[in-house]
Structure formats: structure tokens, C-alpha cells
Amino acid sequence: MLKNPWWVVVGAVLGLLVGNGAIMHFTFGVLLKPIGEEFGWSRGTVSMAMVIGLVCTGLMTPLVGILVDRYGIRRVALPFITLFALIVAAASLTPAVPAVFIAIYGLMGLAAAGQTPLIYSKSIVATFDDRRGLALGIAMAGVGLGVALVPQFAQALIGVVGWRGAYVGLGVITVLFAIPAVAFLVREPDRALAAAAGEAPAVLPGLTGREALKTKYFWLLVVPFFALAMAANGTITHVVPLLTDRGVSPQMATTALSMAGLSLIAGRLLAGWLLDRMFAPYVAVVFIVTPLLGIMLLMSTHDTTMATVATVLMGLGIGAEVDLIAFFISRYLGLRSFGEIYGYLFAIFMLANGVGPFVMGVSFDKAGSYVPVLWVFAGGLVLAAVLILMMGPYVYPSKQDLARRKLAVQEA
């Protein structure tokens, strides 16, 4: 195992490049039209598969978090990643039966729980303290790289071997990137290593999962992250069909999605840098307002350039979600049951990821437009900004913050 802690960050970047978001979620907008056109399915029908897949990921993630807390990262993640890749490749065998396609995505979602940011975040928060925000921001930029590159890869494969071949290619790159990253670079938390060696593990500061569920902090995080995930991810998932409906070529629309991926990278890096320097709720508000502006812009313009700008703003909002969740848990609920608590919040996050694309699809099918649901998303983001400001001071500040407080008391 490499001793430099920043190798953990490198491993997280490589693993999240082909994480559940890049492979299962953000390629869906590229695959949606070809699948629907071949089988004659509506966008709502095709989108239902994504809903089921993301809900299954959300339901399985708390269990994965508990298993990781107990048995360590590699013993849990490596089998899940392998199964996830195999199911993604198996989607190439989909027959012209919607129920089968939906079932495949359900199984894919269950396996995807072992290839979420939970795995990588747990390792990072246990490794870093004072630079935790920056480490999380850089690591989660891997998701942005995935959003920028993987849909383009899928689009290229569709042009050469069709959407079925694209699923096979997505499964292959998952194995090639994620397995080595977890096996050789991601560090096991000391608590898991001590347990494996039969030693008494150090008690990490923080609450148990049951205790966390009884606090105001947990529930003040639920609504904002649900609203942010539903709005940002719901809009981004449909941005390719939304733009092509306005006459933009599929290649240009996919390029706009890739621009969102690049802005996602910028969002994660900026959020991570700010979290080490500013009060986390203030940082969160910035990244809630950003996708709100993107939604308002999408509703008010048909210009291709401005629509691309709106997509970039959405990407900035998505860029901060996952590292914000990890940071908030570590500072308000602690590290004792980080995997379990992260699993609960990520389940809510994934449910929102599923609801967002689905209601977007239903809005188009019923109203012939995405605008009605975009107004709902905007209202949810306003509520999210208000609630996140009610969190209050950190319960588990960094050692650096504690030292500063002690010095301030002595000087007073």
C-alpha cells in the first residue's frame, strides 16, 4: 500500500470515473432515444428503468455502508463492482419487453451500490482532517471526468456498434478502471484494519446510525439534498433530448452534456477548496442557487448557446452534491458510523435522482414540455437554500478549528 495519503484521492478519481453516476445515470440520456426508437417506447417508459435502478441503488446503499463499516472497503466493494460491470454489459441483451429492461436496471442499481462515492468518501474522511474538503473535492472530480468522457464514449460506440454494443463497452471500462483503483490505491480505514487483525479498534468520534436519525442535523440535510439532486440530475438526464427537440444535433447536445461534466469537475474542486475555508452551509447555498439559475435560463431561452450555459450551471450544482454530503456528515454527525449514515443520505439522494428524470419524462409525455416540472424544481431549490442555513455550528470541527478556538479563548 502506498503511504502518501493523496494516493487515496488518485484511486477515488479513477474509481469514480466509472462510478454508478457516470456509467448508469449520465449515459442514460444518450441511450434513451436509440432504445425508445428501436422498440417504440415512450420516454416515460424508458425513464422508468432509470427510476427503478436508482431507487434500488438507494435502497441497497445503507446496507453497503453497514457492511463497509464492519468488514472494510475492499471485501465489500470488489464483488459489487464486478457484478455491476457484468449487469451493465448484460443490458445489451435487452428484448423488446419493457418489464425486462426495467428489471435489468433494477439489478444494475442494486450492484451499483458498491460503486458509489460512499466507498471512496469513507476512505478519504478517515484519512484527511484539515484538508478534508479539498481531498473530497479532488476525489469527487472523478465523477465530473466520468460525466465529461463516458457519455462521449457511449455516443461513439452507438455510432459504431449500436446501443447494445455501447452497454458492453461500458461494462468493460468499469472493470478496467474501478477494480485496480479499489484493490491497490483506496486505503482501508484504521478501524477496519484493526478489526481484521483482531485488535481493539479506536472508537471514532460521532454518532451511531440510530442516534443520527434522531437529530435535527440529519433531517435538515434530507430535504435540501433531495431537492438539489432531483432538480439538477433530473434536468441533466433529459438535457440531450431537450436540446435535440429544439433542433440541436445529437452530437452538439452530447457536447453540451460533456460541458456540464467539465463544470461538474470545477464545481467539485471549488466546493472542496471553499469547504476548508468557509462555513459549509454558506458553500452549500452557493451550489444550490447555481442550478436554480440554470433552470430559470432553460425555461426562458431557446438559444443554443444560452442553453449550453444553462447546462453548465446545472453541472456546477451537481458538482458539489456528493462531497457536500460527506463533509456535512463528518462535521455534524461524525465518523463513528459514517458508512451507515452516508448510506441513508445517499439512498435519499438516489431516490431523488430517480424521481427527477421520471417526472421530467412524464411532464414531456403529458404536457409536451419540460417547463411545468422545471418550475417545481425551482421552488424546491429555494426551500433547500433556506433549510441548509438552519444547520448551526459544526458539532465535530477539525483539529485546526479547535486550535483556533482555543487560541481565541486564551487571547480573550
TrEMBL record:
Q: Which domain of life is it from?
A: Bacteria
Database matches in Gene3D superfamilies: MFS general substrate transporter like domains
- Which PROSITE patterns does the record cross-reference, listed alphabetically? MFS
Q: Name one Pfam family in it.
A: MFS_1
Write out the entry's keywords from A to Z: Membrane, Transmembrane, Transmembrane helix
User: So where does this one cross the membrane?
Assistant: 7-28, 48-68, 75-93, 99-121, 133-154, 166-186, 217-236, 256-275, 282-300, 306-329, 341-362, 374-396
Q: Which residues form the Major facilitator superfamily (MFS) profile domain?
A: 8-396
Q: What is this protein called?
A: MFS transporter
